[in-house]
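Dear Dr. H.,

I hope your travels went smoothly. While you were away I took the liberty of generating a structure for the chain from your last submission, since the lab meeting agenda had it listed for discussion. I wanted you to have the full record in hand beforehand rather than looking at slides cold. The sequence, exactly as received, is reproduced here:
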Amino acid sequence: MSSFFSMILRMRYINRWGLMRNTRNESLSEHSLDVAVLAHALCILRNKHYGGTLNPEKAAVLALFHDASEIITGDLPTPVKYNNPQINTAYKELEGVAKDNLISLLPEDLRDEYAAVFHEEAAPELAQVIKAADKLSALIKCLEEEKAGNTEFSKAKAAQLDALRRMGLPEVDEFLREYIPSFELTLDEQK
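The corresponding predicted structure, in token form, is as follows:
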């Protein structure tokens, strides 16, 4: 018996944005799907409009599992994770152990397949797109919270926008220009 999939699907129980007052909780499962959809879209935009050759399907799969270690570690808030180099280094090590623990739950003949997804050092361009998709997902969460009247996410929104713009990726700039504005519309205003 293997408990890998029952553990992976526990992503639905891990809430994100733990230090923030939320109008609606966002699970790790929701976030992972959002990042996969966004990474896939960014790859397509790069390939179609900017001469890229990225694999959108590979990006989507890597994005689905990009935070899987948080099933074990929980979601460490950004101010805690990144404001202290020692904590950041220790957390990265803990993430690696958590990923190995999850992989060990698989039958041995499947472990290499998932290890490649969990531990693959993606090509720099692909890793950058997944990082951008992760930040876009955070931006969208901030927009949804602000739309619900929660101003606590205003600074996080500004930080995500700044980080996305500094990435200098034309597909991200296009997404911000062409697709992000629709997240501020009501259902009746969608076209």
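Two observations you may find useful: The radius of gyration is 17 Å. The chain has a mean pLDDT of 93.

With kind regards,
E. W.
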